[in-house]
Write a structure and sequence with these properties.
The protein is α+β, with helices and mostly antiparallel strands and about 190 residues long. The protein is about 50% helix and about 20% strand. Helix 4 (about 110-115) packs across helix 5 (about 120-145). The mean pLDDT is about 90.
């Protein structure tokens, strides 16, 4: 149950088994059904979530009711609203399961305890934060510079599993286009690939 978390930690820092075993009791496990919300915009984010199984979308709704997908999270990803989690302010976005899923949960007091008592866990989260910051800036750059076709190609090259597991209407929202435009782009890629 905790092997994916262990792999995630080992991918960024070296943590002894004894340290890792100290962390396990601090986590809860939550089963999340398809289309169930882990968190809704306006609520306080009470937990950090590590995706053990399944997929999620994080999104905001604008004043006209349009959903803007910020990111997709799958196995091995952390998610939540960091500002809401640490400052106890209303969350800026919602998190919804796209498949039957399982997450490991950790509340703020357990996070603080583990970071205070396990230097490697603190280092792990610092590296996660740096990686997350980099990916956010890259996403901002891509959204500003790239066409929908270019962004689709990036997904196809770097995260093809998204195209297999995430409904096309959500991929279209993520790209900022209509499902019909996504269908056209997909057809163009199929024609040019063969």
């Amino acid at each position: 149950m905790f092997s994916r978390l262990r792999s995630s930690i080992n991918g960024l820092v070296k943590m002894e088994e004894e340290e890792f075993q100290m962390l396990i009791p601090l986590f809860g496990v939550r089963e999340v059904r398809k289309m169930e919300f882990l968190m809704r915009s306006g609520e306080i984010c009470r937990h950090g979530y590590f995706v053990n199984k399944g997929s999620f979308r994080c999104y905001q709704i604008d004043d006209s009711g349009y959903e803007h997908i910020i990111e997709f999270n799958m196995e091995g990803n952390w998610m939540g609203d960091p500002e809401s989690y640490w400052k106890e302010t209303p969350a800026a976005y919602s998190i919804q399961a796209l498949e039957d899923s399982e997450v490991l949960t950790i509340d703020k007091s357990a996070s603080k305890f583990s970071m205070a008592h396990c230097q490697n866990y603190l280092e792990y989260h610092m590296r996660l934060f740096m990686n997350y910051s980099h990916s956010l800036f890259k996403r901002l750059y891509d959204d500003t510079i790239l066409t929908a076709e270019d962004k689709y190609l990036l997904i196809l090259e770097n995260k093809p599993e998204l195209l297999q597991r995430i409904p096309q209407k959500y991929i279209a929202q993520f790209l900022g286009i209509t499902p019909q435009s996504l269908s056209r782009i997909r057809k163009e890629f199929l024609v040019h690939r063969f």
